[in-house]
Fold these 3 entries.
Entry 1:
Amino acid sequence: MRPAALAGRCTRVIEGALQWGRTRCSAHSGRGIPRPCPVTTHRLHTRSIERACGWETAVVRRRGGGTLRRDVWVRSVAGAADGRGGLQGDGRASVVLRVDGMKCGGCVAAVERRLMGVPGVHTAEVNLLTGTAVVHLDASAVSTSDLESNGVPSPQVQRLQKALSEGGFSAREPPAGHADGPAQGPAEAQSTLAQQAAREAAEASRRALVAFPLAVAATALHLAHAGLLPAALATGLHCAGPWFAAALGATAVFGPGRQLLIDGIKKLRALEPNMNSLVMCGAVSSLVAGVAQLLHPALGLPACYASEPAMLLGFVLAGRAAEARARAACMTDVGAVASLLPADARLCVGDRTLSVRAAGLKPGDVVVVRAGEAFPADGVVVMGKCWAQEGAFTGEPTAVRREEGDSVMAGVTNRDGMVRVRVTKPPAQSLAAGILREVERAQARRAPLQSIADKIAGRFCVGVMATSLATLLFWSTAGATLFPQVVAGNPPALLAARLAVGVLVVACPCSMGLATPTAVLVATSLAARRGVLIRGGDVLERLAKVDTVMLDKTGTITHGELRVEDVEPVECAAMFERSELRVLSLAAAVEQASTHPAAKAIVQHAREREVHVPEVTNAVTVAGEGAYGTVEGQQVYVGSLRWVRKQAGYGIGVPKQTTSDQVEVAVAVEGLGLVGVIRARDTVRTEAGATVEALQGMGMRTCMLSGDRKHPVNACAKVVGIHADDAFWGVSPLGKAGLLRAMAAEEDHVAMVGDGLNDAPAMLAADVGVAVQGGLDATRQVAGVVLMGDRINSLPLAFSLARSTVRTIKQNLAWSLAYNVVALPAAAGVLLPVCGAALEPAIGAGCMALSSIAVVGNSLRLRWTHRERRGTTARARRYI
């Protein structure tokens, strides 16, 4: 999403309004970049745009340094992206479906084709690993009557389910608690998914265990036929004869391989062949050939040929079992996030306490939370005190004191004390539940690299079946004539059949289908556990390309609120107690009722230092100047230095000079004059310097952006280690967006880190938007990454994990493609004329299984290796 001129028609209108020979307007970025010219000329032409198009323009000027050319003015066109000028907005609804029956990348492509064929579907994103499909619906295709109370268009869901069932797949909506329903909570929904993955892994293991002895027996038959077993054992196996081999093959196909057979047939009937279709074609063709040999011995096939399906399915099912266990391990990461939310709660009903399902809590309910338990829903403490461990959401390592009137979040652990909490939101609408939903949607969003793999896998099975048929025809006819030495001593039909079966079973679209989703699932789950919400594989891929990080100053590098850093008592009459605490107590007394940021900072500082604050009477606030009141019989003035001196006299003390980035609050007593000065500043976060150093150590250019004045911005940049040329000051929200577009024009990949809606335009203009603290609520629609805590020290982790993940995805795809490129020709007999070697079907099945296991295992390696890749400096390691 970019606030840009999104159509070529818009760019032509803009260029026509400028009437400039060398104006370039990008329909992708919304930039119109004319040649440098005087300011008045630029104003003339931007007014032309506004009159002709009805769009707003913003101007940003970048002086010197960096990657931008000197004295270049960049005009950003805002408004063409929000529906004005004839362009329609997004206006789409979305629904998440659980899809059963997907086995490989070919299934992913088939599901997408089925979903896209339903009227009203705009896009569909399918994830093989999690078994989910996120379907984006056009709002124009969903009538108001289609919407239920939870906003899900049920008739449309039924149409989607019908389309998938026709293709041999089954689909259902997530558990009720997954959205907003009370039947099942978010934690239970995710736990159900993890349990389902564990059950599937257990079932796959059972099928593999049943297939194992059949595969051993089939292997023994082959060894006996080849004369590689002791004579006594070989004689016994020969006596068993071809009927025993046929029994082994049939048992394997209709026993542990029954599910593969049924699914493969369904997909073939729907003209959507998948991996199971290939495996079962190979197994059934071998079994049919073996039975044909029993009925017609003149065919000349080996007596043990009918046992080939047992060996084949033994390898395949062993690989499926290992793959299922790896998937279950991936789902464990998501389950760890879900485990933060308790399943049960203690509900107060009169004088009794009842144990109820947490998912059924409603606003207004009062629950009891004891030490060691987690809060079941967002709420407010109404009785008691406790220490809440909020690190999973805020990144704060120490527990925070919570007492009456304080808010608490679902999933936070009560470390000490017992409290009563009044529920303010249902558990399904809590921050923790929102994180779980965002993590799941992120895992369903497909990375661009995966699109390439899915396009290949979508037609892969059809191509493999065609290759198998071509192999059968070639080696049974022309191949026997062209290469007689290859088929010498063997019937051509037997060789052709074995090679055709080998082609079917050695092909592996599964590894291509799993290459991206396994890595994305591990990375997004791991990031969520560390307080970083990454909204999909596409975001990970863009995040990995970032080479410039633009940090907002206020609220991101700084705390975003004034904090007292200096209390200076000045020399005055002898009867006044000259001390910091006395000055602070007088100021806090007068400022208690004020809403000014400086007043709040003074009162908070007095509370932190446990200063006694006396009572104040006759308190009066003077807008723009300060406040005064009577404290312990003395008239006290608190405000600007000029104003308090005017009210109470100069006195004899002279305060020290205040720096340009400090806010100065003077304190004076009538009759004594000035008695002290309190200085406050929007202080820099303690972790900001180490975070910037870590980013620079990763080879990134770090910049700072602010609407503040020059001196405070440069002072802050100096503290955290950002070069003065990379500190931009006095920039408006639209100006921020224009600046980022200008940097993008210089081929920089920029991430914008901000904390509020005023940063939203810049986040939209950046390659990746990163929201800090309240980003999940305030900027979730524009931020691709959300740092869940009130700290930015997890920012290097997000970039390093993204780079590691993309590197892993590329390794997986490279391995998958290389395997298939090498294995398929070898199985088809390309090497037979050269070295007389070809892949046996059973060995090919083992290679196919190992290919999928290698991809999943490489993705799981992220859980153990990302720490070594996350930073380059010792200081960075302390904060990641």
Entry 2:
Amino acid sequence: MWLLNFKASIFHDPNNLLLTWNATTDPCTTAAAHWYGVSCDPLSATIVSLNLTGRALAGVLPPTIGNLTNLRVLSLSHNSFSGHIPPELGKLKSLQTLELQGCNFSGRIPDQIRFLSSLHLLNLSYNSLWGPIPSGWIGSGMLSVVDLSNNQLSGDLTVAGSGQCEFLQHLKLSNNFFVNEIPPEIEKCSNLRTLLLDGNIFQGRIPIQIGHLSQLRVLDVSRNSLTDTIPPELANCLKLSVLVLTNLDDFGSSFYNISADGSAGSVLDFSRGEFNAFDGGFPHNLLLLPNLQILWAPRANLGGQLPSNWSNLPSCSLRALNLGLNNIAGSVPESLGVMCRNLTVLDLSSNGLQGHLPWQLRLPCMLYFNISRNSLSGALPQFENRGGCDFGMVYYGRDGSGILDVEDIQKAYFNIPAWGYQMNVGAAADFDSTLVVAHDFSWNAFAGPLPLFSIGDDFLLTRGRARYKLFFNNNNFNGTFPIELITNCNDLHSLSLTLSANQINGVLDAKFFGCLRIIDFEAAENQVNGSIPSEVGNLELLQYLDLSRNQLSGSLPDQLGELKNAKQILLGDNNLTGKIPSQFGHLTSLETLNLSYNRLRNSIPESLGNVTSLEILLLDHNIISGGIPLSLSNLSRLIQLNLSFNNLSGHIPHFQHISDCTSFRGNRFLYSCPDQDSTPPARIPIPSEVQKPQRRSTLKSFVIAISTTVSIMLCALVVTAFFLIGRKRPRRVASLQRNVVTAFADAPLELNYDNVVRATGNFGICNLIGTGGFGSTYKAELVPGCLVAVKKLSIGRFQGIQQFDAEIRTLGRIRHNEPGYSFWILCWRR
């Protein structure tokens, strides 16, 4: 019995399924016999089907399988068979379905398989098969479905000769290593409905002969090395529904295989990152195909403009249009919104689009809308939402027949995530998962007040299932925060709102935080003033809060400590006062806390040492006093710490990953950092503790006073001469790499960047004599007897070249307020 030989070759059967196979019974003749996975023909009493798909079996496929000569179906997918596919399979002349996907087979595809003249469906995907396909084998015989994707097959692609490819309907060769050109002979497969050639190394042009495939519904040639223009002849494929010309390399898409039992197979790996680079614009007649539902062509090097004559169509079937990262110019046509009312995905990001957005776009019905990084301007309109939304395409439906259905493929392509949002449109039909909705207007020149946004009624039918991501950042929006920016906000699963880098002003109204579903609120680099409402503590889901670089004032509300899920709290560069609340110690998920460049006082709370998840702590440039809590040394994950320029005192605790003394500079009464040899730190004396000198003789004091006065006068005369000669015109003295040194008088020859670094002790804390908004000031003695003041500018603190120039001119007009300093020296990094 040949099946018992098969059983003997299986060494792992975790579910003991093959225990029903025994020598005392015959699966076809013994009454009440039941051999798992085996089916017989009742008339001939012969085995016609062996289906063990997905049963976690492990072993080898023995050559004796070729003795089951009446076998019509062999489905062993998603098991683990080591070794090669046995060539003896070529003996199964009655075989109609051969499914061996995901079985770990290696080696070449046996030549003998091409002799299976009755074979309709062949699926060898997701194995480690390599080498070329036998010449002329694709499309031969009765083959209707061929899936060889996700292997290591290589060489040229050849198609069966004339008259031998009429049965082929679905050809999937994705993610292999096929080279050279796509064969023009593909037109011989006149009934081809699905052609998936993505993820190979095809070169040259898309053959115009593909335009002769009148039955073609799905074409994917993405992630190859194709060039030249997109052939307008593709518009002859009037039934074309899915056209994928390019795809990005970080998608991790989920296009499922379909097996005989309807189960989902493995997932494609879009990580290899080849790119097509076409020439010219996109053929308008392709965009206007009457049945086209998905057009995917990001980063395809396309130019031109979007067609303005969509209104000439009797109807528009487009549901997903991705032309992001191209060179498309012009405006967004109104007719796109008027006619294409079923658009669910629209990505026109990173192009050269200008003008206004038409209000006819049905944005509330779009699961993914990305218009970022263009040059669009004007106010955002109130987008249309009449007639409800249609999401019929996102539902899966398999008939279990084992034949790849075109509509299944169309729906699977809706799982292609867009840009970086990992958008899963297919989840709309799955009420056990959430639906991601992303609308991105960022990096344009939109102006005016923020519009009120509502989500389509169909989204709200998901009731607590929609994750809404809304991006307005890096525009020119102005005005105040609307009290209710998102209507029906609390019906969402979550809301991410990014408003940074605009001109939004006014106060944060407490009612704005009535949307309890906010998980990400970013409004940095605006002109928001007033205090932070205590109601922010009601946002239990909040993970990211960024209000840095605004004009916020008042104290930090204790309620911030109630944000138990917060990972980042960024409030730097404001005018906040008062103390750091001890309640911050309750933020057990916090990873980043930035309170720098404010006017916070009092001490660092001991409770911060309880936030063991903290990785970044920035409290610099405040007026914090007292000691550094020893509890902070418990922060084992802390990798960035800045406590500089406060009024801290006492010892510096040991930090596991912090050894740079710059984290503590600018604190006059803080013990210095220990040297590398671990010698005890030298304490910087407090002025009140410095011992007064003993009384000297009057004569000695008089001589010292006269000498000092003469030295100062001589130094002053030298400085006066320098000023008269140079008129305080800034002069660049030396430049090392990108470090620049400039003096406001004729300087000695010893003035260069190396000498400045050496004289200031590498800008060490011991030579620090002051700090300001644009940098720090150090003392240096380049010439014996004359001290100079060195201003080290922080270019990043300037808002523009005028402010930088004004600071330099101001320094050129004044002397340092400390006695004995001859002139200014500026150091900065270009």
Entry 3:
Amino acid sequence: MIKFTPFIVLWFVFLAGRIGLGCLHVGAYSNVSCFENERRGLLEFKKDLVDKSNRLASWTGEDCCSWEGVECNRSTGHVVKLDLHNNAVFDLDRLIFGDKQNYSSIYGETCLGGQISPSLVNLQHLHYLDLSSNYFAGIRVPTFIGSLKNLRYLNLSNAGFDGTIPPQLGNLSALEYLDLGEKSGGFSDEISGYQLSTKSLCANSFNSTIPLWLFNLTSLVHLDLSFNSFFGPVVPHSLQHWTLLSYLDLTGNQFNTSLLDPLFTLNNLVHLDLSDNQIQGPLPFSLGNLTSLSVLHMGDNSFEGPIPSAIGQLRELTELNLNGNGFNGTIPSSLWRLSELKSLDLSGNPLSGELRDIHFAKLAQLKELRLSSPLLALNVSSSWVPPFQLHTIEMRSIKIGPKFPLWLQTQQRVENLDMSNASISDTIPDWFERVYIYILHLQNNSLQGIIPHPDINMTLDILQILHLSDNHFNGSIPDSLCSLQMLVVLDLSNNQLSGRIPSCIGKLKTLGELHLANNSLHGHIPISLGHLNDLQSLHLNRNNFTGTVPFSLRHLKNLRYLDLGNNELEGIIPAWIGDELSSLSFLVLESNNFHGDISMNLCKLSSLRVLNLEDNNLTGHIPRCFNNFTAMTLTELDPTVTSYIEELSLFVKGEMLNYTSTNGRYVIFMGLSGNKLSGEIPVELMSLVGLQGLDLSRNHLSGRIPENIGNLSQLESLDLSKNDLSGPIPQSLSNLDSLGWLNLSFNKLTGPIPSGRHLQTLDDPTIYMGNSGLCGEPLDKSCPDGKSNAGESDGDHEDGKESYFYWFYAGLAPGFAVGLLGFFSVLCFKKSWRYAYFGFLENLLNKVWVEIALLKRKFV
């Protein structure tokens, strides 16, 4: 039998009491619900919102603490958190590369919009408010938010607000985090009274210097001003107040030459990003003061001179990015002693020297290495075992060859390998298959032999991008490539490959780019390519393909770039290209055997920027509906137009020019030369004011050159040669100030050659040869009847008018004097005229005096 001592009894009583209190506490918490005035405030707020995706469906019932995005204090029941940010992931790649209009619409459905009701002021205990990544259609940030005195976190970024930031936000003295990113507006200097520990203002368009009130925020720890339009000095002297600042991001602004030394006194900085600005000059040695720095990004500026040796003092540095500047000379030895480095990017600088094993000896933590300069060479021993395990190796344009570097075998999982233009003249070794790679760039080398059959069961099944272009590979395309089920980009162009395209290529469902141009491939284009639903870029040009364009390609709804030029394809140009491939921006079918009329259905390709149908057997008229190519009316390029790396070769300006998106050269071009087209040049083409190149040469076009050809203000190359054009050359042609190439030869043009303005610089007589009716410079044939060039005759006409008025006014005074002298001479010698004249004057004076007398009497 258990004996209950007084101590045990007391212990059970104590436990019972604790358990009872605990139960009471749980019961009390379970009954906590939001206050009625706060619930009504939230419902009023919801009523003014536009909620297309019904995200706030749970906002019903009495307990607002259980509503989506609402959080209450567990003790008091007051609403303390309202988080309505848009959870939908914004996929920029999908927006740019996919169906832009459809995706924008889908994403927009998930955004809250409408108005923000003042009823939010009922939530006076609110600590946290997040309305980011919605779309409030350009309304201003509400001033009443400044009355939510307990706010510590405010995020209105990417929400479509406009106007200036209201000064009332300066009342939020408890605010610790403010994010107004992607807001187009300006700041009020009155927002300076609160102690911010974290501030993000990224991706705005303020277009000003940094607001002065920011420098009064002495508690700043985290400051993000990235992707705005701030300009002027990088930092004024008042930044000395930012003594606690550890994170500073000024990426993507317009800061230029500035005093960096004051910035380098902020000893607590751990993260500093000045990338993508306009900062010039040498990098100061005072950079070495930032001994706490872990991340330093200064890429894409205009720094010059050597990398300072003081950079070796940044012993805590884990990321160093100086890419895209003008740093030159050798890499300082102190940099190679930064043993904590995980990411090193010195690419895009004209650095020089030889890199040996010893340079990398202390970089055991390194994961990313990016170097590119034709003045750099990697010279390591064949037995070298690096101390690091890299997942990114980008060593473009560095002398690495002639053999494949054996040390790559030691790297267990390389995600990105780029050794393009690296002077490697070797075969791809067997051991290469054992390197895990997602992205492989080996283009612009002298690699030879056959493309290896990859052992898919080992490592290459993860390959997503394969660039082997501009090498010396021969043989056929191996069927085993069809097993690379994650492949997005396959580029085998500019090699010596032969045979047929494997039909199994159609199994690569994720393929977005297929480049097989400039090889010796033959046979029919496989029907299976129509299964590549994600394909956006198809380059099969400069091969020996025969047959017709497969009907199955109509399924490629996302195709933006189709180049089948320089093959032996035949038949008519399919009408379904215009009906089905509505996303096409580039259509190149030049140098084939296509015949028949140009289908009017092509006019539906409103996004078309390049149409090249040259050197076929096309007949009929140029469709007047070509003015529906609205992309050719743009004088500024939409940055979202370009998909992948575009490559385009066009014979313009008398030579073959290469246009790519990577070297910043874009083109809007129409080429119909070398066919059998007839009829007049449609005047509707003159509305395509974005055209940079127009080639209609070597056809049977007749009639006159359109008078308003001068509307094509962007035109750099115009070739109308070898047609049957007649009549005068329009004077408006002289308005084309961008024109650098002109060919009107071998037509039936007549009359004087226009001159004036830019056209006078095109003084090669071969431009006009073969037109017996033309005259004037630069031809040796003078115009008859004293006529000069059309432009000069207009000038002469103007000069003639000026001369006429000059002599008119010059003769006016003498003529008046002579006439007056003659009149008085008559009066002197003819008595009757003299009496009549003076009698007339006497009568006139009498009438004047009478009128004056009457007026005087009237007013006196």
